[in-house]
Amino acid sequence: MKIRFLRKSFLLFGAFLCFGIALAQEVSGTVSDATGPLPGASVVVKGTTNGAQTDFDGLFTLNNVDSDAILLISYIGFLPVEVSIDGRSTINVVLTEDAQALDEVVVTGYGSQSRKEITSAVTVVKSEDFNQGTVNDASQLLQGKVAGLSIYNKGGNPNEDAVIRLRGISSVGANSSPLIVIDGVVGASLNNVDPNDIESINVLKDGSAAAIYGTRGSSGVILVTTKSGTPGGVSVDYSGSLALSTIANHVDVMTADEFVTSGGVDLGSRNDWLDLVTIDGSTKVNNVSISGGDGKTNYRFSGNFRDAQGILRESGFKQFNTRASVSTLTFNDKLKIDFNISFTNRKSEFSYEEALRYALLYNPTAPVFGKDSPFQFDSPTFGGYFETLGLFDSFNPLSIVNQNTNTGDKNEFTYSANFNYDILDNWEVNALISQQTNKLTNQDYYRTTSHFRGNATSPNRKGRARLYTENRDFKLFELYSTYNQSVGLIDFSVTGGYSWQQQNQYNYFLEMGDFPNNDIEYINALEWSQDLANAGFINASSDASPDDRIIAFFGRVSATYDNAIFFNASLRREGSTKFGENNRWANFPAVGLGADLNHYLELNNVDLLKVRVGYGVTGALPASNGLSRALYTPADGKLSSNQSTDANPDLKWEEKAETNFGVEFKMDRLSTTLDIYSRDVSDFILERDVDVTIYPTGRRVENAGKLRSSGFEIALNYDILRNEKFKYNSGVIVSRNKTKLKEYLTPQEMRGSLGAPGQNDTDMIRIKEGEEIGQIWGPVFSGEVVDGSQQFVDINNDGQLLTNQNNALDPDGDFKVLGKGTPDFELGWTNQLQFGNWDLNAFFRGAFGHSLINTYRAFYEPRVGSQGSYNFVNTKLANPEITNAKFSSLYVEKADFFKLDNLSLGYTFNLKENNYIKGIRVTASGQNLFTITNYTGSDPEPALQDAGTIDNGGFPGTSYDPLIPGIDRRNNYFSSRTYTLGLNINF
Predict the structure, then answer these.
(1) N or C: more exposed end of the chain, with fewer CB within 10 A?
(2) Displacement of CA 97 from its chain's centroid (Å)
């Protein structure tokens, strides 16, 4: 009986299993549009969490799908569809482009809007449009991609952040870089996000868009959205690349034989110093990410490792970054929680950029080691390295790199939790809490045998060690609510909120020297120093900020009438502890109006013809804490008697008022945007001389000055070819900016010292009210040389030649504008081609109208007799008759350039029969492949700011002046050309 029952049960179970197998099947297929496959499209079984994303070829596979199930297929910019399986195992779907794709949601700060409704200048760059190849700085993903956004890392030092300017100079006494917002965290660090983890970047360019961020929006806002998990099975992605870099260009100098022929001192050897201190740099990148989810809870975890070695020996970094994001729905899907956490550790080797300078200028006949010298200059004092003693600014470049160490360690940790609750279908509340901590440690050590900075020849000090540590802590809490409603033809949205932020930082600096011998390393150098009898070489300082707090209340109203007329207005009231007691609070209003004219004109084949105008007021905070208070400097351990500035309780924010007019047009394959803007910046935060009868110190920090910027930006994109076999899209952006100084502390002054040797009193940049910023000012070389000296043009025809720059401040003098440090036009040209599985991306970039002062030529091109122990710069502009060094128009060069900035070729493999690997893609790319320019220096890219001749040895604290563009200093890194091989695998 039992056996019969078991037999029946087994038969019933088998029948049920067979029936289940018949009902549950595997379904595969493709998702494409009219021109080809759509990778990343979402395919989900309706009513379940069973889903997947299409691979590089638009392919998808789903298991355990009922034969009567319905598939939900969607992709951004296309109409979603529902497809009944009806027992089929293969489903191929062609999606139709959504005529309302202009309703694509765009993040604009404290919420989002459809693209069509935006009334301000906002540019969206998605990951597929980022710059390719080896990108270690996230900002360089955008280089040349956004009209009006200038990003330059002059020379390409791997340890330096790029200089970022949006629509020219936006501040003189405050931070002039855009505000960074990452996943809603205002003021987050761009260094704490790996380029591989970024999904898209939105740039808020004008005041009407940035005003919602108040006192930190004057320089524009960059909104970064990182990648997140998507519903479906577990997906594992690996991407890796290997890059090799070589010097792209450097300043031409004489060979050893040319140097001797020209009268240089022959020390008996023949060395290529540049070859000795440089290498072929390499960068290795490995990235692994795991993502997935069930629709309610989605996740993504990633780990990134970068090992970048620069072209200068002992320069580069090793960086580990990890990021996790989890999103979940709870409370009947009314509460959405997004949690993000990231950590970055970077260990840097800064080396010494001066080694590149001396590699060009050090006597090419000098031996590397003292033992190789025919003059028997060998001495253990210099660690065996030959040094040319008694010469100013002359050091053995290989000794600099090999004997000394200059390193840093940086840790950045950020977490954020965002809670979004739907009170009603049209009413939600959002709360964000975040904290970010940064710790930086820099240290350098110069051996007792180091002639460079170690002062091995000094009778009083041998060796040097420095330590700098900085800690920053940032906390943020924001709460805001949004209500949406429709009344007849009007759709409107109202947002109101509160923001609280606090930042604290402290740092300390310690320097010691005069070590007993060269047997100690950096790690115990400081310990040795505390026991030294000579305490004169002990230097210590520290700094701690008070609670740097910002509190704000903000609101925004957006309305759409008849789906064609758009209105936006916002107001932020913000207070900061950095302001004076009488000016703690500021108001920042914005208003924008737009209209889709085509809604009423109904032009044939036109999707959009929108005009918009916006006006907004933004601000900028003081660069440091406590500037509104009296400042003191210590002396003999006392502060009270050393007041350096007086208090200013009325100190306020820098203010920028900007008006922007824009036109957007889209039809079929063509889309274009034009923006014209004008902005006024006032109330710079500057330390200035004041009336000593009122203020005892005669100095205090005040608001003073005005500047005006104007310009235009054009973005044009066209699908030249678009069919199933071949796609070719080309996009061009062009921008122009002009900035004039309207008012300043003084009507006219000179800045930008050329420096030593012998030209410390030569300032080259004129700052004058009513004139454009960045004017290079000096005498004009006539082309004639008399007794080794340049002859200058008598500009005012008075028969007298003024050679003193102080006299040149007289408008009737003989100096004139020799060039301008900022470009008139900047250009980016993108070309994207796809043929079958192959794709090609060529990106060109250029800047035109700017000049650079070639300081290498100004110092080392003249055949100065006393300079016979230094190598000579030997460009095509060199004049061997000149033997006296003096700055003139001869050393100011037009630096227009047009370069192939990035060329990448990729191939995607078809893996239809593989159940384990979803996609494989290989790429080969080159960066900075060629540059068309007449500039004879290493890098023609603009120098948008200047740190002067002060050398801080790679340590923090260097002050940059945005009013001094156009000086190509001698301590710049040399630009490199990079070749990269990349591999992407999706499991």
Answers:
(1) N
(2) 34
Whether residues 26 and 63 share a domain: the answer is yes
State yes or no: pLDDT of 854 exceeds 90.
yes
Instruction: Report the CATH number that the domain containing residue 126 is assigned in CATH.
Output: 2.170.130.10
Which range has the worst mean pLDDT, 334-348, 739-753, 937-951?
Answer: 937-951
Q: Are 160 and 153 in contact (CB under 8 A)?
A: yes
Q: What's residue 740's pLDDT? A: 94
DSSP string, 211-228: GGGGGG-TT-EEEEEE--
Which range, of 35-49, 163-177, 262-276, 568-582, averages the lowest pLDDT?
A: 35-49
Same domain assignment for residues 115 and 67: no
Domain that holds residue 132: 101-231
Same-domain status, 154 and 53: no
Q: Residue 378's pLDDT is what?
A: 44
Residue 390 confidence (pLDDT): 73
Q: Are 513 and 537 in contact (CB under 8 A)?
A: yes
At 8 the three-state DSSP class reads helix
* 3-state SS, residue 857: helix
Same domain, 110 and 222: yes
26 and 106 inside one domain: no
Indicate whether 181 belongs to any domain: yes
Residue that terminates a domain, selected from 55, 76, 94: 94
The closest of 478, 542, 470, 474 to 504, measured between CA atoms, is 474
Q: Judge whether residue 916 has pLDDT over 70.
A: yes
> What share of residues in the chain are helix, strand, coil (percent, to 5)?
10, 50, 35
The whole-angstrom separation of Cα 259 and Cα 809 is 39
CATH code for position 34: 2.60.40.4130
